[in-house]
Amino acid sequence: MPTHWRDTVALDEQQRLVRESIRDITADFDDDYWRERDRKAEYPTELVDTLGEHGWLGILIPEEYGGVGMGTKEVAVMMEELGASGGGFSGPQSIHGGIYNSVPLIRYASEELKAEVLPGMASGDIALQSLCLTEPNAGSDSTSIETRAEKEGDEYVITGQKIWISRVDHSDYALVMARTTPKEDVEKRTQGISMFLVDLDDAYDQDALDIERIPKTASRPVHSFEMWFSGLRVPERNLVGVEGEGFYQLLDGLNEERLAIAAEALGLGFAALESAVDYANERVVFDRPIGKNQSIQHPIAEAYARLRAAKQVTYSAADVLEDVDRTEAGARANTAKYLAADAAFDAADIAVQAHGGFGVAREYDVERYFREARLTRLVPITQELVLNYLGNNVLGLPKSY
Ligand SMILES: Cc1cc2nc3c(=O)[nH]c(=O)nc-3n(C[C@H](O)[C@H](O)[C@H](O)COP(=O)(O)OP(=O)(O)OC[C@H]3O[C@@H](n4cnc5c(N)ncnc54)[C@H](O)[C@@H]3O)c2cc1C
Question: Domain Acyl-CoA dehydrogenase/oxidase C-terminal spans what residues (predicted)?
Answer without folding.
Answer: 244-379
